[in-house]
């Protein structure tokens, strides 16, 4: 009997990741040599990442490459990857960073939950057993505090809605209007998780170890606080208003008015 994870695609977006790319793909292939394919989505990296990805794809049928014309951002890269994966017929589509912060050796934890019925599995830093490695305490406080605020504002009940290590069933992605996804900083990860919550999807979090990159520079900036939390606040207020209107309508119906 086959499982959904038997047809899994891991999307790895890249921009100037020439040194990291062979390392992360090698780890994915070692960890999941049979059921997982890789799609590198490269944003015309000037350091030659795209050309290297093409060479690796030519040598290994489990590796694919999608070239984009310019630096279009992480959200755009994943949307392009989702569409490519859906068109190619994959049953499970995963997100994974190129810099090694997401351990391919833990991918099985996500896929096992998809096979057990989950629609979305989030590799979480903030559930029991999850942790971060080599992060300055200021960044941990910012991320942990931000996720706590997001969960409270939306009432989502999730610990790590900004996490970028994920596995989706194709049926869930097919429910999303990918053109509507927000691209304010890293808020699109929250947007995807929030849409899954609103769709009553089966969402599960599994503990992972997030390791700060060793090679290259982080592309994370202060937009998480400046943009993302403002957008989430607006979503939360709209959600509460919708809940209140629904409650009023239900009470009027019960009272026969």
TrEMBL record:
Q: Kindly provide the name given to this protein in its UniProt entry.
A: dolichyl-phosphate beta-D-mannosyltransferase
Q: Which GO terms describe its molecular function?
A: dolichyl-phosphate beta-D-mannosyltransferase activity
Enzyme class at the top of the EC tree? transferase
- Keywords recorded for this protein, A-Z: Glycosyltransferase, Transferase
**Entry EC no(s):** 2.4.1.83
Catalytic activity annotation: a di-trans,poly-cis-dolichyl phosphate + GDP-alpha-D-mannose = a di-trans,poly-cis-dolichyl beta-D-mannosyl phosphate + GDP
GO cellular component assignments = membrane
The Glycosyltransferase 2-like domain, residue ranges: 10-175
Pfam families in the record: Glycos_transf_2
Q: Which InterPro entries match?
A: DPM1-like, Glyco_trans_2-like, Nucleotide-diphossugar_trans
Example of a GO biological process term: glycolipid biosynthetic process
Q: Which family does it belong to?
A: Belongs to the glycosyltransferase 2 family.
Annotated organism of origin: Corynebacterium variabile
């Amino acid at each position: 009997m086959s499982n959904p994870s038997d047809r899994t695609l891991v999307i790895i977006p890249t921009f100037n990741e020439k040194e990291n790319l062979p390392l992360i793909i090698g780890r994915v292939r070692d960890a999941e040599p049979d059921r997982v394919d890789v799609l590198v989505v490269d944003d015309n990296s000037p350091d030659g990442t795209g050309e290297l990805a093409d060479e690796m794809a030519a040598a290994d049928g489990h590796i694919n490459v999608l070239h984009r014309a310019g630096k279009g951002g992480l959200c755009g890269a994943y949307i392009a990857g989702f569409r490519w994966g859906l068109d190619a017929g994959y049953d499970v589509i995963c997100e994974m960073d190129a810099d090694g912060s997401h351990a391919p050796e833990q991918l099985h934890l996500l896929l096992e939950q998809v096979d057990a019925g989950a629609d979305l599995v989030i590799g979480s830093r903030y559930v029991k057993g999850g942790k971060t490695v080599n992060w300055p305490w200021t960044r941990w406080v910012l991320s942990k505090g931000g996720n706590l605020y997001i969960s409270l504002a939306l009432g989502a009940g999730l610990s790590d809605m900004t996490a970028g290590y994920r596995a989706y069933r194709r049926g869930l992605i097919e429910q999303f209007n990918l053109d509507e996804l927000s691209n304010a900083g890293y808020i699109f990860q929250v947007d995807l998780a929030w849409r899954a919550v609103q769709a009553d999807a089966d969402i599960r979090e599994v503990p992972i170890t997030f390791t700060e990159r060793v090679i290259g520079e982080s592309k994370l900036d202060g937009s998480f606080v400046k943009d993302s939390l403002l957008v989430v606040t607006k979503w939360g207020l709209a959600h509460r208003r919708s809940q209140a209107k629904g409650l009023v309508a239900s009470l009027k119906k019960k009272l026969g008015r």
